[in-house]
Amino acid sequence: QVQLAESGGGLVQSGGSLRLSCVAFGLPFSSYTIAWFRQAPGKEHEFVAVITWTGATTYYGDTVKVRFTISKDNNKNTVDLQKHSLEPEGSAIYFCAAAFKSLKVRPQEYSYWGQGTQVTVSS
């Protein structure tokens, strides 16, 4: 059974930093692209960042590209999202999702999802 689990969310002040982690079970992790999406109340999923199955290629959403860094460890089955200079607009539930050997930014392209971790940025 495939399972993704996010961790690292919480309350942080504006301008602060936070590191989110996603661990995967039950799939050949080195063959899966992992993406992060976020969803604020009343809004649709927004693409944040993606890293390909080898970790060689990354791509970021326009609102986060200079402040977030995504990394992948195929030995530990984990993907981390390092976030800097957080803004209140970044408050949302952050989800990691997995897709087989692709580079996609639309949530419907992803087969497996975690339950999400809440990030709240106070002003």
Task: Summarize the structure in words.
The chain is mostly beta strands. Helix content is 0%, strand content 51%. The protein has no helices and eleven strands. It has strands at residues 3-7, 10-13, 18-25, 32-39, 46-51, 58-60, 68-73, 78-83, 92-100, 112-113, 117-122. Strands 2, 4, 5, 6, 9, 10 and 11 form a seven-stranded mixed sheet that branches. A four-stranded antiparallel sheet has the order 1-3-8-7, with no helix packed on it. A hairpin with a 4-residue loop joins strand 7 and strand 8. It is globular and about 40 Å long. 31% of the residues are buried.
- Strand-pairing-aware structural class: mainly beta
Beta percentage is over 45%
Q: Helical amount among residues, as a percent range?
A: under 10%
| SSE string, helices as H and strands as E | EEEEEEEEEEE
Distance between the termini: 40 Å
The total beta strand count reads 11
Using only CA atoms, what is the Rg? Answer: 13 Å
Number of separate helices: 0
Give average pLDDT, whole number: 95
Give a quick set of tags describing it:
51% strand, 123 residues, 7-stranded mixed beta sheet, 4-stranded antiparallel beta sheet, mainly beta
Summed up:
The protein is mostly beta strands and 123 residues long.
SSE map:
Layout (H helix, E strand, L loop, with lengths): L2 E5 L2 E4 L4 E8 L6 E8 L6 E6 L6 E3 L7 E6 L4 E6 L8 E9 L11 E2 L3 E6 L1
Parallel strand pairs: 2-11
Antiparallel strand pairs: 1-3, 3-8, 4-5, 4-9, 5-6, 7-8, 9-10, 9-11
